[in-house]
Amino acid sequence: MCVELQRLASEASSPAPYVTVSHSILYENYQIGPYCSKSLELFESKLAQFPKGAKLTLMPTSPRNSDQLKLERETEALFTKRGMTLELPAASATTGPSAQ
């Protein structure tokens, strides 16, 4: 629970909305700030509401395995395609999608 509280505190103090993405055999989860989508299609619809040039921050999730890193790279590419930036928190810059 402490990790979740830390994440929520970071989101509240961040000028840019946080983005989290995760996927497993049982579920998909895409989140922008307080908005949670259960499919990539719904996530893209929410993303379309942000202007070009928007900068959002990726909040890495666990586990940090190859599938998760691939999903984060695909998400970063989706932002780039829409003219937006998906930034990594400074502490995660060496382990995030751009570092691969």
Describe the structure.
With 100 residues, the chain is of the alpha/beta class. The chain has one domain. The protein has helices spanning 2-13, 40-47, 66-81; strands spanning 18-23, 28-32, 35-37, 55-58, 85-87. The protein has a 5-stranded mixed beta sheet. Strand 1 (18-23) and strand 2 form a beta hairpin.
Order of helix and strand elements from N to C terminus:
HEEEHEHE
Structural class: alpha/beta
Give start-end ranges of low-pLDDT stretches: 93-100
Quantity of strands, as a count: 5
Helix share, percent: 25-40%
> Which strand-content bin applies to the residues?
15-25%
Question: Major sheet, described briefly?
Answer: 5 strands, mixed
Average per-residue pLDDT, rounded, comes to 82
In a nutshell, what does this entry contain?
The chain has three helices and five strands; from the N terminus they run αβββαβαβ. With 100 residues, the protein is of the alpha/beta class.
Please outline the helices and strands:
Elements: H1 2-13, E1 18-23, E2 28-32, E3 35-37, H2 40-47, E4 55-58, H3 66-81, E5 85-87
Parallel strand pairs: 1-4, 4-5
Antiparallel strand pairs: 1-2, 2-3
